[in-house]
Amino acid sequence: MPQLPLLRRLSTRARVLTGVLLGLIALGTGLLYAIDSERPAPDIAGIVWQPDNATVGIQGQWHTLGAKELLVQWSVVDDQAFIPGTGLPGVPVMPDWERIAREPWAQGVILGLAGYFSENRSRDNIEHLAALSEQLARVQTPLNVTGWYFPAEVDPSWTRAKELPALLAKLPRPLWISVYDGANIGPAATADWLQSWLPADVGVFFQDGVGVYARTAPVARTYMDVLSQRLGKDRVRLIVEAFRPQWGGGFRPATLDELKPQMAAYAGYPLYLFDGPHYVTPELVEGLNQ
After folding, report:
1. Number of other residues whose CB lies within 10 A of the CB of residue 53
2. Tag placement on the chain: N or C end, fewer CB within 10 Å?
3. Which residues is 177 bridged to in the sheet?
């Protein structure tokens, strides 16, 4: 099972040239969003975990950063289950959910339902995923489930997103989806688009795009400001991309100097670091705690 670098699938985004340019701009303008001693400290509410075979033994000290909630991207992916009792084939090694439920960074869990690694496959099979997710939500786990997450990520380029309300109506609440602005249409236009179809009882995790150099952290904050005003602050949370592209392909953990100002720009919003096991390393946790 391949490891994905982030919630959305970057293979569908042509970002290489713009990424280099925006990366240089971000380096040159870092002082514009350096940590302000008068601002409140960033609110690290939780971490995201994209389960794969390499991270089933998830371990970390993320609670020392303040994380108390775990967003699990999916419990079934590519029709393989990461939780028992689904009737589907299971992954080779199941996570120890009993132990995870006792972790201080998983006092509450937003449990992801059914998805596919491929974004295109997810979008082409949205009805199947919704029906399977409805069944998964009934499976008992030892987790303190504080909400549910439907793993089909949305952006304004996806015309079928407007079909989601009827499918999401069958899923339990509190319910969350994730949103990104792949076309960079801007905060107001993104909010307009969401308001045109998103059910009022569904919350949004906004992916900041900083990890792929789609935008800088101050720009991502403007999205949060607009979305919070339009949708309501309780319905909007922020996914902080705690990684960066690495030379030769793939992704690496963000450095401390990259991540600290990124998070500081979002002071006042609940932050979820993507993703804990793959990118928020023990060394990074130690540095953030100093």
Report:
1. 13
2. C
3. 204
The answer to whether the peptide bond before residue 174 is cis (omega within 30 degrees of 0) is yes
CB 181 within 8 A of CB 155: yes
* Tokens at 246, concatenated: 């690495």
Instruction: Please state, as a whole number, how many other Cβ atoms lie within 10 Å of the Cβ of residue 31.
Output: 7
Distance from C-alpha of 97 to C-alpha of 75, rounded to nearest angstrom: 11
Cβ contacts of residue 2 below 8 Å, gap of 6+? 52, 117
Backbone dihedral angles phi then psi of residue 229, each to the nearest 5 degrees = -70, -40
Does the global pTM surpass 0.70? yes
**Residue 10 one-letter amino acid:** L
Cα–Cα distance for residue pair 232/205, rounded to 1 Å: 13
| CA separation for the pair 92, 246 (Å, rounded) | 29
Which residues are paired to 69 by β-bridges? 46, 108
Question: What's the chain's length in residues?
Answer: 290
Report which secondary-structure segment, H or E, holds 287: helix 282-289
Domains of the chain, CATH where assigned: 42-289 (3.20.20.80)
Question: What is the tens place of the pLDDT at every residue in 214-232?
Answer: 999 999 999 999 999 999 9
